Each structure stands twice: as structure tokens, then as C-alpha cells.
Amino acid sequence: MDTPLTQHIRPDREPLDLRSYEQAGGYQALRQALTLAPQAITRLVTEAGLRGMGGAGFPTGRKWSAVPMGPDAPRPKYLVVNADEMEPGTFKDRLLLEGDPHQMVEAIVVSAYAIQADVAYIFLRGEYVLAAQRLQRAIAEAYAGGYLGRDILHSGYHLELYLHISAGRYICGEASALLNALEGRRAIPRAKGVRTAVSGLWGRPTIVNNVETLCNVPHIVLHGAEWFKALGRGQAGGTKIYGVSGKVRRPGTWELPMGTPMREILEAHAGGLRDGLALRGVLPGGASTEFVLPEQLDVAMDFDSMATVGSRLGTGTMIVLDDQTCPVGLLANLEHFFARESCGWCTPCRDGLPWVQQTLAAIDAGRGAPEDLELLAMHTRFLGPGYTFCGLAPGAMEPLQSGLRHFREDFERHIRERRCPWGADHGDHLH
């Protein structure tokens, strides 16, 4: 089995119901997990080397190990699934939620058991209506089948699971802002220094994990850490759901070994660029990552290898820039998104991102000045890591700072010729 995460996803995306999922081996990992000590599952996940697939790449087992355990641990404890998938160009979690909702439910119960959580939430992007419908049906079936609620499979373990539909803000993908939103408060990042594993939702121990991250857990429990590590290429273990969007022949998502080279994903799976187009760059992990250039395409798509080319794996879902698309217009579009999605909590992000977006829009429209480029470069420093409460503004600066570095001639032509060299009107990006 080389594609554990998507093995049950049919071509028509119609998900398995409970009976079909059970017949396909579903909930066997939960049955096995309930025979183990909770700490044994955390050890397995740690030994497997599973890392967060939402973009940060933090080791999952280490995160779980920080949760207080034992009879004196504060109660209730929570597990929260971050399914607020709003990163531009990213749609991998949607595939898992719509295509195999029972896998998500089983992953939640197994992971919640490992940290002895009492309550779990799925924090779902509001626009994922079909996923919500299918999750609600799967949750109801799981309660009826004895996989949720009181005394799960006569093990003495109890878990309540709730589906929460997000109001729809990008900041809710930040774990502490997500918890605030779940508590019914303004979605802003919390002060650093207090780990949510100790004091999270309503001040109780809480783990927040991404959809894809958790969906790996049942397979690790069933097949072991060594099996998981052998799925990947090189030093990276497991599989990854990669995606490609842009002007390629076959945009989409594929579950492949972690560490698959970027070139192989683009050319063998996405079919390469459409006829007549050439590649100029790739944002490898959603909008908030730095550009990778065509001569760097042989890099392995894993957490460590991406750092060697000055970028990040992020969500592993690529946005392709071709030679007939204006990079200034592309960046103006992305920064417009980030400026609108700032929660307004800290000054650099609240005031800096609109300034960046307006400067880029002016350049794109042929109203820029040469000194604007230094102004933009200065903002990439002062909106970077260490100057804001969370990663929204630093993430927004990653494509801009690499765009200024790699496509500076394009910026200068816009200013010098006082027009977009592609003759494009990007006004539609900004409204």
C-alpha cells in the first residue's frame, strides 16, 4: 500500500459509508489503538517522524508529548482539527474530507485517545459545504456504530466530537486565533510563551493538528513506524498530498512519497506547462512561500530539502508562474489577499500590508516610482519574523521578497514604461 491516505477515495469522490469503510478495513486502527497505552501511540508517532502537514512541519509526537497525562491532569482536554484550509492554491485537505470522511473520524478518535482528550472539534472552512455534509453524516454513523460517545467499543474511553463551521477568515488557520474563534471571541493570535498543549481551549490542555497530519495516524498505528518511514524517499518518511495549480496541462492533487522531486510532480503528474508556455518560477507550498526557480526543480519536496533552495515545503501545493503571466500582477493579487485577511491586531501587519498592496497596485498600473522598490524591500524586513504576533505578515512577505529578487527587471519595466509590459489590466485581481 503506497497511498494510504487516498486508498479509499473513488474517482467520483463519493465517500464510503460506515459499512463499506469497515469492510475495507476501517476502524481496525482504532480497535488496535484501544488495546495500547495512550503513551504507546504517541511513541509510535514520534518514532515514525510524522510532522505537521499544515505548513509548519512541527514534529507531531513532540507536540503531543507536552500534554499533561495521568489522573491529576487538568480536565477536560481537547483535540482540535485545523480544517480551515484558506491558503491560496491549497486544496489537499478538502480532498481528504470530501473523499474519505470516516478516515478523518477514525484519525480523530485514535489521536484523541493518545492524549486522552475528552472532546474534539473539527474547525472547518465555511466554504467547504460538501465536506461539512459528508463529515456530519460520518460523525452520525460513527456515533451509531459505537466509535464515538460513551465507552467506545467497550474500552471505557469516552469522546465527544463536534463539527464547527468557520466564519471564514484566513487568520483562523493560526492555531491560537482558531482557538479564540472557537471560544466565540475575536480571531486574533494569543500572546506567545504559553503552550496550547498546557493551556489552550478555555484554558485547558489542547492539541491543534492539521487534517492531513492526523489522517496519517491510524495507518502508523496499524503498520508501524518503520513502515511509515519506508514510504518516503531519502530521509523523509511517509507520503504527502502534493498539488499543482496554474497553467499546467493537468492541475490537481496526488499522494506521492514524501521527498518526490518537484520536477517529477510538475512534469510527470501535472503534465508540464501548456503548449507555448515556459516556466518562470514556482511557489512550492501555497502563497506564503518563496519562489523556486526552473534551475532548482530537481529539489526534493520535503521539509529539509526545500530549505536548501531558500524556500519552504509549506502545504506542498504549488502555484506555477509561467512566462506569459505578469509576476507583478501575481504578487499584487496575493498581497491584496493578505492585506484583506489581516486581523488588525498588530500594527506592522494591519498598516504595512495595505501599504505594500497599494504600492504594488500602483506599479502594476504604471504609476510606480523607482524608489518604490526600496520601499517594498524595506517592508519585507519590517513585516518579517519577530515584528508581528503571528506568521501572517511574515508569510505574506516570502513571495514578495523572492519576487523582488528574481523578477526585479519586471518591476523596473513597469516603472520605466509606465504600463504593464504584458498589456494586462490586473484591476480584476484587486476587487
What's a concise summary of this model?
With 431 residues, this protein is α/β, with parallel strands linked by helices. The protein has helices at 18-23, 28-33, 38-48, 60-65, 92-99, 101-115, 129-144, 175-182, 211-215, 217-223, 225-231, 262-269, 303-307, 327-341, 347-364, 371-382, 392-406, 408-417, and strands at residues 78-83, 119-124, 160-165, 206-210, 239-245, 252-257, 279-283, 317-322. The strands form two sheets. The chain has a four-stranded parallel β-sheet, sandwiched between helices. The protein has a four-stranded mixed β-sheet with strand order 6-5-8-7, with helices on one face.
Could you give the topology of this structure?
Layout: H1 18-23, H2 28-33, H3 38-48, H4 60-65, E1 78-83, H5 92-99, H6 101-115, E2 119-124, H7 129-144, E3 160-165, H8 175-182, E4 206-210, H9 211-215, H10 217-223, H11 225-231, E5 239-245, E6 252-257, H12 262-269, E7 279-283, H13 303-307, E8 317-322, H14 327-341, H15 347-364, H16 371-382, H17 392-406, H18 408-417
Parallel strand pairs: 1-2, 1-4, 2-3, 5-8
Antiparallel strand pairs: 5-6, 7-8
The radius of gyration is 22 Å
**Strand-and-helix sequence, N→C?**
HHHHEHHEHEHEHHHEEHEHEHHHHH
Number of helices: 18
User: What oligomeric state is this?
Assistant: single chain
The best one-word shape is: globular
Structural class: alpha/beta
Adjacency order of strands in the biggest sheet: 3-2-1-4
Mean model confidence by pLDDT:
95
The percentage helix is 40-55%
Low-confidence parts, pLDDT < 50 over ≥5 residues?
427-431
Q: What's the total number of strands?
A: 8
Q: Determine the strand fraction and express it as a percent band.
A: 5-15%
Distance between the termini: 46 Å
